Amino acid sequence: LTRFQVFSRDRFTCQYCGREPRELTLDHVVPRHLGGEHTWENVVSACVPCNRKKAGYQPSEAGMKLIHKPTRPRPDGFHVPHRLRTIYDQWNKFLPQ
After folding, report:
1. How many angstroms separate the Cα of 30 from the Cα of each of 26, 54, 60, 89?
2. Is 8:40 a contact under the CB 8 Å cutoff?
3. How many CB atoms lie within 10 A of CB 66?
4. pLDDT value of residue 71
5. Which residues, in sequence order, are CB contacts of 32 under 8 Å at separation 6+?
6. Cα(first)–Cα(last) distance of the chain, in Å?
7. For the whole prediction, is pTM greater than 0.85?
8. pLDDT for 60
9. What pLDDT is attached to residue 82?
10. In the chain, which stretches have pLDDT less than 50?
C-alpha cells in the first residue's frame, strides 16, 4: 500500500471534491487516532484543502462525503497507471477495463 498505488486506484483525483490537483495527499477516512487502520479500505487520495478541512474528523463530522468507497484493487496481476492510460489511448483496446 503505497502513495502511488492509492493515487492510481483513485485516478489521481481527490475523493472528496473530485478535483485533479497537482498535489495530492493521503487521507485516512477513519482517522488513525480514532482507531482507523492504514488499509486499502480506509485510505483515499485527497487534495490539500479537503484534507485540511476534514482534519482529524470522520467525513460525516466534517460535513464531507466520499465520491467512491475505497476498496482493495483487484489482484489481476496486471496494472497500468491511470495517467498512462490517458496518455496512450491506443493501448486501451488491449487492456482489461
Report:
1. 12, 10, 10, 36
2. no
3. 13
4. 95
5. 38
6. 22
7. no
8. 96
9. 62
10. none
Cα separation, 75 vs 91, in Å, equals: 20
Write the CB contacts of 30 (distance below 8 Å, at least 6 apart in sequence): 36, 37, 42, 58
The grid coordinates listed for 57 are 474528523
The residue among 65, 70, 61 whose CA lies nearest residue 26 is 70
Q: One-letter amino acid identity for 84?
A: L
Q: What is the DSSP string of 29-67?
A: SS-GGGT--SSTTTEEEEEHHHHHHHTTS-TTTTT---S
- Measured CA to CA in angstroms, residue 37 lies from 82, 96, 97 at distances of 25, 30, 29
